[in-house]
Design a protein that fits this description.
331 residues, alpha/beta, Quinone Oxidoreductase, Chain A, domain 1, Rossmann fold, 2 domains, seven-stranded mixed beta sheet, 10 helices, globular
Length: 331
């Protein structure tokens, strides 16, 4: 098969690669759409020791089962699975299983390839062909669904009266804002500093978008819930400033690991800070259902490119040259 292989720092090669082998309990999926995630970018830049090169990245994918009794079934992939035996897994929280695995990390190859082998229980059936491309967004949007669900359940009043702020206009942030809207929140502001991307965000229904510097920007101590979809020290600082007394911060982004948290303000104002990692299996299924029902909008804000042009796509994302919140690669 052909695959886009991360062979070194800032190096992706489109090349022939050995076909995956489906083990017992797994299906072979022919990939049709595979999105570029921020964690893929971290690996590309050499910042993720969990993804040593050479490796096939990519874990946001949809495609078609090939072979076996389910041949031809349209599916989207939940790339994460736990051990199935620990307390976290038994509680439905395999996302925090100590022995969890995700495709695009050893020992599992990722989805920037023609095919990938996936456990049967990690596949969600896509009902129609026209939903297959938006179905590739299930994984990143499920991260936002998970954070929105955790943040909203810690609120005292009805969700319709809440003020929510999302930091970051990539797919994680956009997804979080759309999920909040689907869950009944009306006052949602998304802050994005890239002017190219911000222009795209103005055309998406369900939230207001700003660079944080205009008259519509949220003011300090105004948000019941802040979702940080970026995860840099500067965005953590902003989240701590924006949250009102008794508010909640949900932290998704993994941009960097140091600085920005105002522990004194969190303590004095009883602000809840929640680290949120990916999603539970139920979050993934609920997100897929919301996508298929149209509850998250048309999801037409993605850009598609051939997998063979993956190197250029990564470089454009890194240098802020793409207006789309998400680039999806097509094998």
């Amino acid at each position: 098969m052909k695959a886009l292989v991360n062979t070194g720092v800032e190096a992706l090669n489109y090349m022939d690669y050995m076909d995956p082998v489906a083990k017992a309990g797994e299906e072979m999926v022919q990939i049709q759409y595979s999105g570029i995630c921020g964690s893929d970018m971290h690996a590309f830049l050499g910042h993720d020791t969990r993804r040593p090169t050479p490796i096939i990245l990519g874990h946001e994918a949809s495609g078609t089962i090939i072979g076996g009794p389910r041949d031809g079934t349209l599916v989207t992939i939940n790339p994460l699975n736990g051990c199935g035996k620990c307390a976290s897994c038994l509680a439905g929280k395999s996302n925090i299983c100590a022995d969890r695995q995700i495709i695009s990390m050893p020992p599992r190859a990722g989805a920037f390839a023609d095919m990938v082998a996936i456990p049967l229980e990690n596949l969600l059936v896509v009902p129609r062909q026209d939903l297959l491309k938006p179905a590739a967004l299930t994984e990143p949007l499920a991260c936002g669904w998970h954070a929105a669900r955790l943040g909203l359940r810690r609120q005292n009043g009805p969700v319709s009266g809440l003020t929510c702020v999302v930091l970051g206009g990539g797919a994680i942030g956009v997804g979080a804002a759309l999920c909040l809207s689907a869950m009944g929140v009306h006052d949602i502001t998304l802050i994005e500093v890239n002017p190219l991307r911000l222009e795209t965000l103005h055309g998406i229904a369900g939230f207001e978008a700003t660079d944080g510097n205009d008259a519509s920007a949220p003011v300090p101590s105004s948000a019941d819930l802040v979702i940080d979809g970026v995860g840099f020290a500067s965005t953590r600082t902003s989240a701590c400033e924006l949250a009102k007394p008794g508010g909640v911060i949900c932290h998704i982004g993994l941009g960097s690991g140091e600085g920005g948290v105002d522990v004194r303000r969190l303590t004095l104002q009883e602000i809840t800070f929640i680290g949120t990692y990916t999603y539970t299996p139920q979050d993934f299924r609920d997100t897929g259902a919301a996508i298929f029902a149209g509850q998250l909008g048309p999801l037409d804000w993605v850009e598609t490119r051939p997998l063979s042009e993956g190197q250029a796509a990564f470089e454009d994302i890194r240098n802020g040259r793409t207006p789309a919140p998400k680039i999806i690669l097509i094998p």
